Task: structure prediction
Amino acid sequence: MIEIEHITKRYGDAAVVDNVSMVIEPRTMTVIVGTSGSGKTTLLRMINRLVEPTAGTIRLDGIDNRSVPGPELRRSIGYAIQGNGLFPHRTVAQNIGTVPKLLGWDAARIRARVEELMSLLQLDPVEFGPRYPHELSGGQQQRVGVARALAAEPNVLLMDEPFGALDPIIRTKAQEDLLAIQKRFGTTIVLVTHDMEEAVHLGDRIAVMDAGKLIQYATPAELLAKPATGFVETLVGASDRPFKLLSLGEVRDAVEPGNAEGEAIDADATQRDALAELLWSGRPAMPVTSDDGKLIGRVTVEELIKRAARPA
Result:
């Protein structure tokens, strides 16, 4: 758990982060969004004390982060940034093993952890371990950066615009990798982005910041359905909010009894995908099947549009 209480950071008379309080639950992913200069990166960096607060307290599992020396604190918290920050003169395996080596892990333990993470991120240890960063694609470098941040088995992973430099296809794959990692290790992740689509896709909760203040802190569904201010409403995008809402739900939650003509859709597909397919094919309804291919009902355009409507 990360407890942020009345955190403020001033540079001169300007408050870059202004009296922010929020609680990040264990084993969840919280995404901080906002425009450039909103204070989101500064807030993130105060968690691992790359930036020292002017006022307020941050506690990790009840322990004030100022009670631990900065270097020791940062070795216990994963940190991944845009552009990766990989050491160009070290191999992939050496990059990933950096923090475990600093912590005094033995060579066998480091090697096992490096191989585990590389395999998880679909980087063959034999093929990619001896390579240097300049020999990798942008997406591969990003995966190495995430692996390095996770190498010392941190309970907390901080990520600052980690996918910002990737092209859309690679970025989507990197997001799916991150969700798989979070599910497997139960890491508490705090991620900064300016991309609301990414925030909705990844976050258990989203924190919206503007001019250093926390404007709204809510689940993606609540944020989309009931934006707290006009600024939040603009940020989430009024025109495509219904589609973002549908992207949060699975087809199985909208299934009705009965059958329909044409190709079926999987129950674990998103409601957004189902509506897109129905509109594209011009059908009012389509059959829905379970993982084993059995028919479980149908989903209709009428029901999906109803679910996309703003709650009363």
